[in-house]
Amino acid sequence: METNSRRFRAILVSLLFFSLSLNMGSGLAEVEEIENIGPNIEIFDMVIGDTWVFNTELDVASLIDPTDETWFGTVIENPLIGQTTRTVLGIETMEYKSKNYSVYEIKQEGNYEGIGTFPAPVLGLITGTMLVDYSATVWIRISDHATLREVTDIHIDLQHIAGVELLLDTVITREFDTDAEYFDFPTLWGETWTQTYIQNESWDGNSGYFTPPGNEKLKEMAYGYNNHSTPPVDWNGCEKSSYVQQTNSEGEITEYRWYCPSIRGNVAEWDEDIILGVPAYLELISFTPGETSTSQIELEFDPLFESNNVTLNSPIIFNLTILLENGSSLENEIVKVNYLGEYTNWTLNGTNSATINISSNISKDSTTTLYDWASHGIVIQLSNHDVFTAFTITLNSSSIAEGIALRSESLELMSNWVDGSFELITIFGEQTRW
After folding, report:
1. Diameter over CA atoms, the chain
2. Is there a contact between 258 and 270 (Cβ–Cβ < 8 Å)?
């Protein structure tokens, strides 16, 4: 009888989540109907030294509030123009929410300028050239490319006939209470998914004409991938790219990206808030690949292992072999495996191999989707070498539903339903994250 009761609860919760999933895409903006079917987007490894340069437009005019006396008379007719360089500096270990993760350290730098008219003490309205110096370091988790932290140094001057007026000179730090995961790897064709997190933003320096925003900003985002088409940039190997779109709870587009595997990144992108709430549009003009290591990691799984259908707490077993171009031995070298915020060490044998055996665990990631309620990346690193790779497993959704149903508080979900898909998702996150 107890077994039947458990099954009933599992089925009931599954139906509730299915109903929730039907509402997830309702806030997405419409995208062009594409007849062809695009590829799934799998987790990919960036290479240390990878460098992308983008032509960039900053829509600074959208910042101006005509009702704010600070900006009285301000006019910025055209976007600021410049270039942004993005480089993978290296990989490191980062502590985040009391866990340790392998992350990419990525540097972004840009210089932009454009004409603007601003109020100034004594002088009244002055027209000049806005000069923006931008530098940011972003830490992105290797296992799922989720942003964990971002620190930006930004300086804005207005250069005019009477001299230079400082508009802003500050360091802005963004912390995320939940990993900000743009791609839900593996990103499936036709998939929509959702995420809710708090973005904490702090300023240190001279804010000049700008008013720092509130420290905490609730982000409720929906994502959709159903467009594999020609991007607005003519780039060899990117004639067809995967278009992924982010919207807020009002259904407004807040970010989009054309991802292209041949450049290990985006060939074009738009973000409504690159910094200061300024929208930015970027188009690729050059890509310089980093130097690929001569060491390669090969993984071999049991033929019966299904990476997209892993049951709760099941063992994940695979053999890995490190291949060196010169064929030298790595015997007794240590390989680190980073999974769910924890590291385990494994020793290579005389054939540069090791058998890895870890548990899938029951931890759930921060994105919610009908297709995979809990997908996770596993990172493998050769210690003392810049050699690493990542792959993704997906926990079986039926097992997730049963696990939720067996928790004593699970049925309280039914009494907490409210109108609106994002409110449901927030409750989902609060009530069912293990």
Report:
1. 85
2. no
Q: How far apart are CA 193 and CA 323, in angstroms?
A: 37
Query: From the DSSP assignment, how many helices (H) and strands (E) are in the chain?
Result: 3, 19
| Size (the chain), residues | 434
Nearest Cα to Cα of residue 299 among 242, 380, 217: 380
CA atoms within 13 A on the CB side of 309: 3
**Residues 94, 102: Cα–Cα separation, whole Å:** 6
ω into 186 cis (within 30 of 0): yes
Q: What six digits make up the tokens of 316?
A: 């994940």
Q: What angle do CA 409, 199, 393 make, to 5 degrees?
A: 60
Residue type, 365: D
Between CA 411 and CA 126 the distance in angstroms is: 63
Whole-number Cα distances in Å, 276 to 112, 127, 135: 15, 22, 13
59 is written with which tokens? 């829509």
253 within 8 A of 247, measured Cβ to Cβ: yes
**pLDDT digits over 57-75, tens only?**
999 887 777 677 766 778 8
- The architecture that CATH gives domain 293-395 is Sandwich (2.60)
Cβ 337 vs Cβ 358: under 8 Å: yes
Q: What is the DSSP annotation of 60-96? A: GGGG--TTSGGGTT-B--S-EEEEEEEEEEEEEEEEE
SS3 track for 107-173? EEEEEEEEEEEEEECCCEEEEEEEEEEEEEEEEEECCCCCEEEEEEEEEEEEEECCEEEEEEEEEEE
Give the residue from 168, 140, 139 showing the smallest Cα distance to 154: 168
CA distances in angstroms from 368 to 152, 168, 260, 421, listed in the order given: 30, 39, 24, 12
Give me the residue spans of the domains in the chain. 31-288, 293-395
Tens digit of each residue's pLDDT (9 = 90 or more) over 357-416: 999 887 777 776 666 667 899 999 997 778 899 999 988 766 655 555 554 344 444 344
Distance CA 338, CA 362 (A): 16
- Nearest CA to 340 out of 360, 326, 325 is that of 360
Provide the pLDDT for residue 265. Answer: 97
Ordered DSSP codes for 183-215 = S-SSB-TTEEEEEEEEEEEEEEEE-TTPPPPPS
Helix, strand, coil distribution of the chain in percent, nearest 5: 15, 50, 35
